[in-house]
Amino acid sequence: MRSEFPERVSYNRFVELQSKSVLPMLVFLQTCCLSKCSGISFLDYTVLKACHYKREKQNKVFKGTATKGRGTIGWFFGFKLHIVINERGEIIDFLITQGNVDDRQPVKDKTFHDKVFGKIFADRGYIGHDLFEQLFVDGIHLVTRIRKKMKMH
């Protein structure tokens, strides 16, 4: 498809430009592409791998910003994308953190969930008594499944 992309860059140059394009893209998404909450929201995260975790010492693109973390699939080197969507699948808010940040930490930040109200559904990784209480005070009811080894009171 060379005719469709006459001014394409090489793969090496693409990798170099990748880290420079992240910030403008995030600003665009935050200012133009977010939707409104309707009272029912879903919260989860996904892993954004910078490279294989065994090659983290060789990584130069996100040196100093990407970290090693553990996700549901295993170890990775990169970032976590925390995202809140409404029942129509439209993005309400998102946040990118380093890979070693606890899943619950961004949700504790009021600025991340200030656009959300009503019920928010999340997986078991977001279970925490203090998080549940903090969200409840802010008008959000966190709904998760109970962990297998958790005792019911």
Q: What's the story with the biggest beta sheet?
A: 6 strands, mixed
Order of helices and strands: HEEEEHHEHE
Q: Alpha-carbon distance between the termini?
A: 62 Å
Number of helices: 4
Which residue ranges are poorly predicted, with pLDDT under 50 across at least 5 consecutive positions? none
- DSSP helix fraction: 25-40%
Shape label: globular
Number of domains as seen in the coordinates: 1
Mean pLDDT: 84
> Quick one: CATH class?
Alpha Beta
Pairing-aware structural class of the strands and helices?
alpha/beta
CATH topology: Nucleotidyltransferase, domain 5
Q: Return the CATH architecture.
A: 2-Layer Sandwich
Q: Got a strand count?
A: 6
Strand composition percent:
25-35%
Cα-atom Rg, whole angstroms?
A: 18 Å
Summarize this entry quickly:
The protein is α/β, with parallel strands linked by helices.
Produce the secondary structure layout.
Layout: H1 11-32, E1 40-51, E2 67-70, E3 75-86, E4 91-98, H2 105-108, H3 110-113, E5 118-121, H4 129-137, E6 140-143
Parallel strand pairs: 1-5, 5-6
Antiparallel strand pairs: 1-3, 2-3, 3-4
